[in-house]
Specification:
The protein is α/β, with parallel strands linked by helices and about 375 residues long. The protein contains 14 helices and 10 strands. It has helices at about 15-25, 35-40, 40-55, 65-75, 90-100, 110-125, 150-155, 180-185, 215-225, 225-230, 235-250, 255-270, 290-305, 335-350; strands spanning about 60, 80-85, 105, 130-135, 160-165, 195, 205-210, 285-290, 310, 320-325. The strands form 2 sheets. A 7-stranded mixed β-sheet has the order 1-7-6-5-4-2-3, with helices on both faces. β4, α7 and β5 form a beta-alpha-beta unit. α12 (about 255-270) packs parallel to α14 (about 335-350). It binds pyridoxal-5'-phosphate. Pyridoxal-5'-phosphate (PLP) binds next to α4.
């Protein structure tokens, strides 16, 4: 229960066959960047299909999700601008912000009120600069969801504000048919840029940014250094993502099943008295706190056949280690029952239902 392959499509025979067919037809590498020789027609098909799926006018695909954030953010902004950015943002977002040279203005995690205060202050000091706000749709460790309606509402305070949503963990999971967090809130149009990856629900590797201003998207296509100066995706990866997207569109019941399973897991953990934090997505962390204890809990689960690695600093703040549980829609009811039984016994052994000071001493030799 550790993978980001939320819909279990990485093992779907149709995805595997389409990747194998593409590799047989086009080879295993394009031998250069999209600009040089790697711009296969599959790129265009995938970009058009994704744009239609998301309800955006244009999509620019990069070779990784990391590269999409790095390349897009750094080319959209200049040192004259400023970026309001959620404090829990992914490293690739921060790298993009740093590379842009724009002033980084972090706001408290998932707090639109904090963003509003920071926006006010930053705007006062730099009335000419372009304001840009970045949040993730679903936060990958805590499984909590951005307060998108409140973030969009900041546009009434500052109409020039552009909103960039990293929906790496929302695509394929949130919203109608897995169309993502913006679709979940009915705010696709108001969300200026939607970023996503193929490395989670879409069973491949690669990343993209979607937007409605075709001139800006064309600019990105020609200015993103991570796109221009990096090798194009192999055909197999493009074909896998395209087929996964087709399956997602044709079989929305996969998304429904994922939510059903996640609901059972969350309810089960809560009944055990475990702390699942602010999670309201299909990522369900169990808060453990201590890094070593998290490793022991994870080891105890593994001994019962459950792979759920611990997330420790710097993936989470210091002293806030978790076991990150992320079910897939292809898990069976029997597997869900096994996970719950294993977690119940391990949690009981380590007193995870108790406040940290009342738990048994942490014993590294614990088996
Ligand atoms: C929120 C977020 N953004 C971007 C990325 C980068 O995506 P990729 O791993 O596909 O390069 C990740 C992946 O871990 C992520 O969790």
């Amino acid at each position: 229960v550790a993978s980001n392959d939320y819909l279990g499509l990485a093992h779907d025979p149709r995805v595997r066959e389409s990747a194998a067919r593409a590799a047989n037809q086009w080879g295993t590498s394009e031998g250069g960047s999209r600009f040089l020789c790697g711009n296969l027609s599959l790129y265009q098909q995938l970009e058009e299909r994704l744009a239609a799926f998301l309800g955006k006018k244009a999509v620019v695909v990069h070779s990784t999700g990391f590269g999409a954030n790095l390349g897009a953010i750094s080319c959209l902004l200049t040192p004259r601008d400023y970026i309001l950015c959620d404090r829990h943002s992914h490293a690739s977002i921060l790298s993009g912000c740093q590379a842009s040279g724009a002033r980084l203005v972090p706001f408290a995690h998932n707090s639109a009120a904090s963003a509003a205060r920071r926006l006010d202050r930053a705007r006062g000091g730099n009335p000419q600069g372009l304001p840009f706000l970045i949040s993730e749709g679903v936060f990958s460790m805590q499984g909590d969801v951005a307060p998108l309606p409140e973030l969009v509402a900041l546009k009434s305070q500052e109409p020039r504000l552009l909103l960039y949503l990293d929906d790496a963990h929302g695509l394929g999971v949130m919203g109608p048919g897995g169309r993502g967090t913006a679709a979940h809130f009915g705010l696709t149009r108001q969300t200026d840029f939607i970023m996503g990856t193929f490395s989670k629900s879409l069973a491949s590797i690669g990343g993209f940014v979607a937007g409605d201003d075709e001139t800006v998207m064309d600019f990105m296509r020609h200015q993103s250094r991570a796109l221009i100066f990096s090798a194009a995706l192999p055909a197999a990866n493009l074909a896998a993502a395209l087929t996964a997207l087709e399956i997602l569109e044709a079989e929305p019941e996969r998304v429904e099943r994922l939510w059903r399973i996640a609901g059972q897991v969350r309810d089960g953990f809560k009944q055990m008295g475990l702390d699942t934090g602010a999670s309201c997505s299909t990522i369900i962390p169990v808060t453990v706190g201590d890094d070593l204890l998290a490793c022991l809990v994870s080891k105890g689960l593994l001994q019962q056949g459950i792979f759920a690695p611990p997330a420790v600093f710097p993936a989470v703040p210091r002293g806030r280690a978790i076991i990150r549980v992320a079910p897939k829609s292809t898990h069976s009811d029997e597997q869900v029952a096994r996970l719950l039984a294993a977690m119940a016994s391990v949690a009981q052994r380590h007193g995870l239902h108790l406040p940290p000071r009342e738990r048994p001493p942490i014993n590294p030799g614990h088996r």
